[in-house]
């Protein structure tokens, strides 16, 4: 069940999504991935979220981290976690970008930087616990590609912890914690959520 709004629809989960009938200029794509908190049906290759901030959703965790442009292309080249030195340099560079976005009052950029820091932690931890980084047995189901999680697959036995990857994870965790608790970030997050709420009722 959907409740119509001017430019948006609110689904039964209370999440605002783009109303294609009221915004025909929004690029869409076929997507087999459904998420309650993030609209994977947007044609991310053809959307500049710096120019179309009303289309961005924070989602859960790292959702959209490798989709939302131009931020993905600005941040991804600096993302590395293979060892402590790379993790340190990477996390510091991404955190510097995070602060730069905050100075520009660019919440989406800051949130994307936060997601990359979080992903640095989660990926490093995965490689620390599972040699080769493979956590679950089998392939991701076709209708779940793009979403993290087990999706019914059993977790593979953990290997002996890789101390290098564990150290890299701790480095990213420190910067991720700093980012998500940053007062300016939290202020802009509240303003962004209010902006989305207001647009949905316009």
Biggest sheet features: 3 strands, antiparallel
Helix-strand category: mainly alpha
| Tally of contiguous helical segments | 5
The N- and C-terminal alpha carbons lie at a distance of 20 Å
Q: Residue share in helices?
A: 40-55%
> Could you give the order of strands across the largest sheet?
1-2-3
Task: List the defining traits of the structure above.
three-stranded antiparallel β-sheet, mainly alpha, 5 helices, 202 residues
Give a written overview of the molecule.
The chain is built from five helices and three strands. The protein has helices at residues 71-75, 84-103, 107-129, 163-180, 183-201; strands spanning 3-4, 8-10, 16-18. The chain has a three-stranded antiparallel beta sheet, covered by helices on one side. It is globular. The two termini are 20 Å apart. 28% of the residues are buried.
Explain briefly what this protein structure is.
This protein is mostly helical. It contains five helices and three strands, in the order E-E-E-H-H-H-H-H.
Task: Describe the secondary-structure layout.
Elements: E1 3-4, E2 8-10, E3 16-18, H1 71-75, H2 84-103, H3 107-129, H4 163-180, H5 183-201
